[in-house]
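Quick question, first post here. What does this chain look like in 3D?
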Amino acid sequence: MIDYITGKVTVLTPAYVVVECNGIGYNINISLNTYAALEKAVTCKILIHESIREDAWHLYGFFAEDERELFRQLISVSGVGAGTARMMLSSVRPGDLREAISEGNVGILKAVKGIGLKTAQRIIIDLKDKTGKHSVSGEIIAFSDNTAREESLSALVMLGFARNSAIKVVDNLLKEDRTLQVEEIVRRALKLL
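> Answer (accepted):
Ran it through. C-alpha cells below.
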C-alpha cells in the first residue's frame, strides 16, 4: 500500500528512523545500511515495506531499491521473518549477502544471529537463482569514539541484546580499533553476541 515516504528526518537511530510527512511522524525500522545512508540527511525519501499482522503494523524502510528487494526475497523464505531479514541486512552488506547466497556460502549466513545451519541452507536453496549481483551504494561517515560507542550500544539494545553484554563487546572492539564507525561496530558485535 505505501511504496515510499518523503519527509523530514526527526529521529535517526541505527535501528529506526522517524520521518515526518504532513504532520505525521512515521516510525520506520531500518538496517545499518540505510542508517549510514541517511546519517547526515535532513529530509529523505525512504522506500517502504509494510508488515501487517493481526496484532501489529510495522514499516520497514530502505534507502535503495536493491536492499528492499533483497529484504522481500529473504522474508519469502520459510522461517525468515522481517526481524531476521533486517538483522541479516545489518550484519552483512547487501552485495556481500547476495554473493554469499549465489555462491552457497553457508558460513556467512550462519554468522548472523538467529540463523542456523538449516535456515542458512534453506535461504541458499530458495534464493540462489533469484539473487543477482547488485552494486552497494552509500559510504559510511566517521564518528567520534564516544558517539560511535553510544550509537552502537543503542542499536544493539534496540535489536534485543542485553546492554551489559553489548557494552563488553563494543568496548573490546573499540580497544582493538578506536577508528571504527557505528555501522562496522554493530556488524562486528552482531557476530560476537
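The chain is about 50% helix and 20% strand.
The two ends are 36 Å apart (CA to CA).
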